[in-house]
Amino acid sequence: MKKEQIILGIDPGTSVTGYGLIHTQGTQMKLIKLGVIKMGKTDDHPMKLKKIFEGVLDIIEEHKPDFVAVEAPFFGKNVQSMLKLGRAQGVSMAAALYRNIPIVEYSPKKIKQSITGNGNASKEQVSAMLKKLLLFKEESAYLDATDGLAAAVCHFLQKDLGDSGDKKHTGWKAFLTDNPGKVIKP
Q1: The CATH number fitting domain 5-178, selected from 3.30.1360.40, 3.30.420.10, 3.30.200.20, 3.40.50.720
Q2: In Å, what is the CA distance from 139 to each residue of 37, 39, 87?
């Protein structure tokens, strides 16, 4: 049986940064916490970055995660927005590095694929599947929180698949068949 781990997932944003924490042991995972770090109504970008750094550092100090999984910024048309998101991601990563916690990045498409089986799933579909996987009902006013949680769950699923030896799966259905108890089927 694998050791217990805590994984922090982060969905960086310059207005709202979402996060989720899961506890894993062997092939089981359970929700610890999900939430958001809100930047408020300031236009001072450096102060927003400071708030993200401090918020992520506070979460790390409280929960002592073993890994941090971060959603990578997607490529958009607005270069300035991309730069700001990249900075938000950077300060989130810097907080983890400050406490010597390993970091891994996943694209939004990879996260959606690992959670729902569809890389083009909506945020609402990801949220609904996470509720089924982790058996929770609480609603967040922000889908950013479940996006952060999805990054953590994605890391757990990817890491576990990588540690499973030579077994390769041809699709989501094959994975479910080969891993009873890993996820709750809808």
Answers
A1: 3.30.420.10
A2: 16, 20, 28
